[in-house]
Design brief:
Residues 48-295 form the ABC transporter domain. The chain has helices at 27-33, 86-93, 116-122, 139-148, 155-160, 163-182, 198-211, 228-243, 255-261, 279-284, 286-298; strands at 46-57, 60-71, 75-79, 101-106, 109-110, 124-126, 216-220, 247-251, 264-269, 272-277. With 299 residues, it is α/β, with parallel strands linked by helices. The chain folds into two domains: 1-10 and 44-123 and 215-228 and 242-299, Rossmann fold, CATH 3.40.50; 134-213, no CATH class. A six-stranded mixed sheet has the order 6-7-8-3-9-10, sandwiched between helices. A four-stranded antiparallel sheet has the order 2-1-4-5, with helices on one face. Bound molecules: adenosine-5'-triphosphate (ATP). The site of adenosine-5'-triphosphate has 14 residues, from strand 2 and helix 2. Adenosine-5'-triphosphate is lined by residues 1-3, 57, 60, 62, 80, 82-88.
């Protein structure tokens, strides 16, 4: 949904910041958090195809025949001025909005007409611009909800306490704790989500999305409301997530963050694809600069 927080609008395109070396991973936490995943298989292959995707709201075309690919193992930035169609694109990909045309394919399989929870199970997870956590549940319980989407025990099996259910319960706690550790908030595992500091809530959202073991993690403005130091930490976390074998699609208004963390960038303007390329190229693209200058002039 459109965010009217103009504090987040970049001052045109700031100086390019060369990405720092990735931090070392806590390999034990990473292994528990993603025990069943084939890490870094097929890096660089097409994971998601956005194919002539269109979304209309009444007379308004919010997304107009947009096409781009997301490659396995990359951090792809999705940027554009306010109202360009970024969140609409996320919503069409994740089954929140029904596209009026085109297709979205994950590993060649169309996501159209699939329910949101089916799309999650197929491997597409997201966070929201406005944090959506279960406020009365602890941080660990919030992550457990994500992990539950992967369990195979039937309700009947759970009621009978069959060994597989007990194993799954134990692994939920272990993997949940590993995920909280992975995003850096393990000490807050037993704290109610609503009582967590804002930055921890953002990290918890990411942990909950990772709990579904996604092939693609979509982050919608994860740095909104962060101070510069928190943004630096977030960039490090996003790189760590990518280096652990996940593919990331990132909507973000903060240009320093986008330029510093992404491998490639797709730019939307007025619902259309404006440009696509590596950060250095995008930063120097006259059409992109003028799109942002236009936005600045409107502020
Ligand atoms: N549910 C909706 N009903 C009607 N119009 C909508 C809806 N969602 C989005 N729009 C409109 O579609 C256009 C694209 O909005 P969208 O939120 O996707 O842009 P955005 O690029 O994510 O912007 P922002 O950076 O401000 O979040 C805007 O004109 C917006 O007002």
């Amino acid at each position: 949904m459109t965010d009217q927080n103009h504090d987040e609008i970049p001052e045109v395109i700031p100086d390019y910041v060369e990405p720092a070396a990735p931090p070392s991973l806590d390999s034990e936490a990473a292994e528990k958090a993603a025990a069943e995943r084939d890490i870094a298989v097929g890096v660089g292959q097409t994971l998601v195809e956005i194919d002539n995707l269109s979304v209309t709201f009444g007379g308004l075309t919010a997304l107009d025949s947009v096409s781009f690919d997301i490659k396995r193992g990359e951090i792809l930035g999705l940027i554009g001025p306010n109202g360009a169609g970024k969140t609409t694109c996320f919503n069409a990909m994740t089954g929140v909005y029904k596209p009026s045309g085109g297709d979205v394919r994950l590993e060649g399989v169309s996501l159209l007409r699939k329910k949101q929870h089916t799309i999650t199970r197929m491997g597409l997870a997201r966070t929201f611009q406005n944090i959506r956590l279960w406020g009365e549940m602890t941080a660990l319980e919030n992550v457990a909800v994500g992990l539950d989407t992967r369990h195979r025990t039937s309700l009947f099996g759970a009621m009978l306490g069959i060994p597989r259910h007990r194993r799954e319960e134990k692994s939920t706690i272990e993997r949940g704790m590993a995920l909280l550790e992975f995003v850096g908030i393990a000490e807050a595992a037993m704290t109610k989500a609503s009582a967590l500091p804002y930055g921890h809530q953002r990290r918890l959202e990411i942990a909950r999305a990772l709990a579904t073991d996604p092939k693609l993690l979509c982050l919608d403005e994860p740095a909104a409301g962060f101070n510069p130091a928190e943004k630096e930490d977030l960039m490090e976390l996003i790189r760590t997530i990518r280096d652990d074998g996940y593919t990331v699609l990132l909507i973000e208004h903060d240009m320093k963050l986008v330029m510093g963390v992404t491998d490639r960038i797709v730019v939307l303007e007025f619902g259309k694809l404006l440009a696509e390329g590596p950060p250095k190229e995008i930063r120097e693209n006259p059409a992109v600069i003028s799109a942002y200058l236009g936005e600045e002039a409107q502020v």
